[in-house]
What we know:
Blueprint: H1 16-21, H2 23-27, H3 41-70, H4 74-95, H5 103-110, H6 122-145, H7 149-154, H8 160-191, H9 202-210, H10 216-226
Amino acid sequence: MPGNPFDGPYSSGKTEYERYLRVPELLELQKPPDKRTHPDELLFQTVHQVEELWMKVIVHDLGEAVVHLDAGAFALAQAAIERACRLEALAEHQLRLFETMLPSSYLVIRAGLGQGSGLDSPGFNRINEVAPRVYEAYARALERQGIELLTVYQEPTERAELLAVAEAMVSFDAQMQRFKREHITVVCRIIGIGTASLRGNPIEMLERSARLTYFPMLWAVRDRMFIDFRAGPLTY
Length: 236
């Protein structure tokens, strides 16, 4: 079968646009056609590379949120977390590109991955490391304000700016759960449920990861608010 006629290089690197974005280097970060084990390897590698870039921006925005929280700039902290949440949603949506890959295609690609695993993603692991520190900064803000988290939720109009930040963190946490669930679905679709990897069953490992949350206090406060709830009479 002849090679793909459009797989050759095309960026000259001469324009300011290309130089600023370092396009020639960027387009050389994927395997060249003669090194690919399968045509779909370009998609496989590119999606993962783009995911790492978005995760880099997420980490940056979480750091911005910490800086703004410590400075008492709650609106800016909220905006940073909300953008990180949008980036998570984008990363989740991109995973669906793998639904276009047949199991037979990945079987070929997988043979050349060595012991590589998505669990080793530096971006994902960095998010897991820094996200809890956003809540630590939020807790410091609560302490400076002399207010408890439960009060923020029980009196939403009194500390609206603090509530907005907390809800942005909940959205971020929830979106990461969606990302992880989508990842599980994609993996199941390609390799099945019982397929083992060199590190064990990947679905079981992903399921364990999916049960973890970044901000357990923000979920627990909901339990506390409803713990004494009693149903009243039906109103019309």
